[in-house]
Amino acid sequence: MRIYERDLYMKYSEGRHGQELDDVRPIVDIVDPVPPATSSPHGQKSLDVNAPILVKSDHDFGHQVPAISYLSTMGSNEVEVTVKDPLSKPHGADLLQWKSSDRRDLNLPSLLPVGISLLESHGWIQSEVSNCTNYIRVYVNPMMTSRRNTQRSSTRLRAALRSIMAKIESSPETWINPRLSEKAEDLQSVDTVDESLWYIFNTLKDPCPRPGEIKDYWSRRAMEQLLFNDELSELGLRTTLYPYQRRSAATMVQREAQPSQMLDPRMQPCQSPDGRKYWYDREDAYITLNKVLYSEACGGILAETMGCGKTLICLAVICATRGHTPKIPIEYMSTPEKPDLTYVRESTGSLLDMAAAAAQRHSEPWRTFFRDREREGLYFERCKRACEYHQASYEIPPHRTRYQGRQNQSFPRPPAKRVFLCAGTIIIVPNNLLDHWQREIKTHTEGLNVFVFDQRSGDLPSAEHLMSYDIVLFAKTRFEREAGESINNRRGRFVQMDSPLTELHWLRVIVDEGHNVAGQGSRTNMIHLLSQLHFERRWVISGTPSAGLYGVEVSLASRELNASDTDSATDLTAAALQSRRKTGNAVTNELKDLDRLRRIVVEFLGLKPWANSRADDDYADWSKYIKPIGEDGRRRKTAAIRATLQGLVVRHQLNVVSQEIYIPKLYNEVVYLEPTFHDRLSINLFLFGLAVNAITSERQGPDYIFDPRNRKHLNQTINNLRQAGFWWAGSEVSPQDSIEHATRYMDKNRESMTAEDVDQLIRGIEIARTAMRSSSWREFKRLHELGVYINNFPSEYRAYWSLDQSGADQEPLLVGITQARRAQQFVARHLKLSDPTQGLAGAGITTRHDLERRDQQTPPKAPASTPGSLHHNPKPQTNKSPAKTFTRNLFYSLPANSPLQKTQLVATASAKLTYLLNKVLQLQDTEKIIIFYDNNNSAFWIAEGLELLGVEFRIYASTLKPELRTEYLKLFREAEDVRVLLMDLRQASHGLHIAQASRIFIVNPIWQPNVESQAIKRAHRIGQKNPVYVETLVLRDTLEDHMLKRRREMSEAEIQHAEKSLLDDGTMSDIVQREPFLPMGQEEEDDTAAAFLDHPVGFFNRHRLPIPDDEDLTLPGIRYL
């Protein structure tokens, strides 16, 4: 290919893909009918006509028409082609005029592809037909096809050019000799590579700060201090940063101070056969010979690996740039063209005042300068006061409009506003992370002025007061409340926003866990308010900028690993990356992820060209350029998405971080437990209900629970079935109703039923009758209780506390877990008495009546798995009276010779609860423990079990107020006596730092690996000092066992497809429909009815009664510790 001035040529091969173009050279005027031949750059003869492109056509021009420069005779037809003088023809006319000496009129231009003829007629291209091959050379005029010179409305022309460019043959050899085209290798465009968005995110280049390229002295100095200073105390940092943290912080400063120039992500660099470059926009078919550059965002997304210190990195950036002030926006700067923005003094100022005003006006960090002088023993108090007095500001003039509304009223617009430059940083964090940020600031920094606004905070102070703070820390709900009512009243007078935040131009804003910064739910609050405020630098902090964008370490965390595994972390990482390199079937999920990214890129960061207005001639449609599927239906990932992410994301690859820090090893294993009699019975009753429904509905129609119309009810049923793996005491379906329904159906349809269906119903009926014969099961169902077994319960009170009155004489005694807690509490409240069991019988009667009333108040068919059903007191009860004080730390305890010392807790009816209690007893003295649950009922039973043992714990649940969650989390981190944290899995996905825990138990297996990994990384992160052991509890041969096995077999694409529900996976849905009954053994309650503790534990001696300060300890008979 060759290029001439104002003309660009390329080789086009119909049916092939790829593209190449080139640069410019002088052109020879075309005047003669037959231009002279000249030598091409490759030694071949070519024509100095407006650059041809070689096009492969369905018509064999080599046998019908001559090449442009000479006459050829093939058969009886002679066709002559002459070149018209372009100087004499009208603009837009065809360059070539075809003449035939045959009697038939051969309209050769009509034989050309329609797109080429259309583009020729408008002067966009010129074409040349090869003499002996079915190829066409086309020369493109880049002056006509560039974005600057082409109207956006020229859709037909751009569509034609796009169709030509999609079939470019780019080989230099083929350009010289078209006969080599079949042997030439097509150059695939970079945008045809189907790399998954997840893979791109995990293979972005590591941050590489270059302080030598930064022009601003103070920013360059800040970067050098972050990178090279061994001690960072001069910056106000108490903590030494890891190398990757230094690089990330320095990169953030670099992007703030001097955003790089990046190639327009819509334009793809291409190369012509002679090696010269051009740039092509594939979507809108624009061609240019010059690079189009845009500035990267003044900020971006800090997306370092979970648990690797993103908060500390942000604090390091704030400390390094402390005292830096934003620059006055260019549009508000005083220039000769805008003299009205120039501030003129009323009188000549002193040299000090003028120097201070100039320093402020040019955003010189005078606070940093004077701090450095003070370290040298030099103090400039007058200068500091002068700088504080001459605070830099600029005026935003009122918006002027040419248009008038009704009654000659202008459209309401904001008045002129003066904005002052401010060196502070606003940080917006989720409510539950406010305490975390306060603790991190206190731990890692010194000397920072911080103002904190939580959910309960009142009005903001004045703008002048806010200017004195380095950090203004907001809880998210408090920040959104600052937005107030609608700002622009379109039908009335303009309402000025009165928040003092709008009076300042802040240095930066940081949004922690910012993946939801532009979510639909917060669009009218957070984004609206952020759009009204003035920031120079903007950052989002999130290790998962979108639901499907997370680090490879998250995938690895959910894998089962134990001490015998020998695979290196590098090998595991490489294998995980390769397994998800392609998009696969996850296109729908990727589209959602890309839309979430768009909100961050466009609405928050304002990155151009994506943030260009639709009214702008240079508007860039994000969905058009970034979508993972082209108009031809082919999978692809444009270079635009990788280029955009690379310019925004600050993130190190996992192998780099792993080499620079040490985090103790993670061990993740599945623990298989044998279900108890009641576990099996509950699960089988659910399976019987599913079987009755499937068989009696003949597996079709609206009555069939697996019918798509019943998906919501089916999901609830499966959730309840999974809950039964821990414990089920609900009353959703009556076994008697199922028996009657199944019996009636078999009586009418037995002859038409398959043997398998008959056997299944008969087996289910036997199981249901077993349940109805079980007195303990009936009591569990009636009173919504979980059973515990107690040895040596005081004989005179057994009948009053036994769950099953018929078993009051049996040993061990079966008691409901709520009953057992009430018995403990009664004895503990009366420990000061010589006989604390006085009144225990009456307490047992009262407790049973309370449980029966609770049963009557509970709707008989209400599903137990409903949000907010956690009715357990989340904090262990105490007997402290609010009117008394207990500073002496003295307690009443059970006497050593009391008969109650022999009473012991020996078992529970739930295999999983027993296992958890065993582990807590074993580990609580040396390790802190997190227990993740996925439904509130399980949390209630676990909490009751922990209180039976007298274990100090706290609950982190969605049903608690944010303030209480924060308090409990702080206690777990800091208090030595709080050993266990019960955590709602839905609250454990982002941001929480709980490295104090080294043992994690997952009550029920989690379907989504990503959710499991997010929970695990709450503890396995920087700051962890011990190996982390994760155990997922699974009942053997149950649905949850089969679910976990299926999850291991699934590909990444299948997992993404079924991310929301396991029923979205066809194989898993089939497993549910074919799930067999669990064997029941002897079909009656026997030794498997209970899961026994490894060691019996005391029942009445695990709790003490605090002694108030005003109680006389000299009285006889008082026992205290």
Automatic annotation (TrEMBL):
SUPFAM superfamilies: P-loop containing nucleoside triphosphate hydrolases (SSF52540)
PROSITE patterns: HELICASE_CTER
Pfam families: Helicase_C, SNF2-rel_dom
Annotated GO CC locations: nucleus
SMART domains, A to Z: DEXDc (SM00487)
Region of interest (Disordered), ranges: 848-882
Protein's UniProt keywords contain Hydrolase: yes
Domain Helicase C-terminal positions: 912-1071
A GO term, aspect molecular function: ATP-dependent activity, acting on DNA
UniProtKB keywords: ATP-binding, Hydrolase, Nucleotide-binding
One GO biological process term: DNA repair
Superkingdom of this protein's organism: Eukaryota
PANTHER family registered for this protein in UniProt: SNF2-RELATED DOMAIN-CONTAINING PROTEIN (PTHR45626:SF51), TRANSCRIPTION TERMINATION FACTOR 2-RELATED (PTHR45626)
Protein name from the UniProt record: Helicase C-terminal domain-containing protein
